[in-house]
Design a protein that fits this description.
The chain has 114 residues and is of the alpha+beta class. It has two helices and four strands; from the N terminus they run E-H-E-H-E-E. Pfam families: OmpA (PF00691).
């Protein structure tokens, strides 16, 4: 029996200082996430929000969590069981630096299996 591995999912990006999910701009990414979560219906995931490097750590910690919660709310609205979804806010994205640390690449939420 071949067991399929949970795939890497695309990030959902956010506008500057926003925790609103742009369901039109990121429809493909969101549809992919929903499809995978429905296919892997027994897999729990964590949604982690990130921010760019502008602003204070305290503010960005809150914003990153609100971004994760916004993606969770969207997924629940698409029929994904909320009990499978945990959220966390990572604050300023540590994977980006320099100019990239102030771009949309840093302003995102990622969905990964636990």
């Amino acid at each position: 029996m071949v067991v399929k591995e949970f795939p890497a999912l695309p990030p959902v990006h956010f506008a500057f200082d926003s925790d609103k999910v742009d369901t039109q701009k990121y429809a493909n990414e969101l549809n992919t996430i929903v499809s995978v979560l429905k296919e892997f219906s027994n897999t729990d995931v964590v949604i982690t929000g990130y921010t760019d490097h502008a602003g204070t750590n305290t503010y960005n910690d809150g914003l990153s969590l609100r971004r994760a919660e916004a993606v969770k709310k969207y997924l629940v609205g698409e029929g994904i069981n909320a009990a499978r979804l945990s959220t966390s806010g990572a604050g300023k994205d540590s994977k980006t630096s320099g100019r990239e640390a102030l771009t949309i690449k840093a302003r995102r939420a990622e969905v990964k299996d636990k």
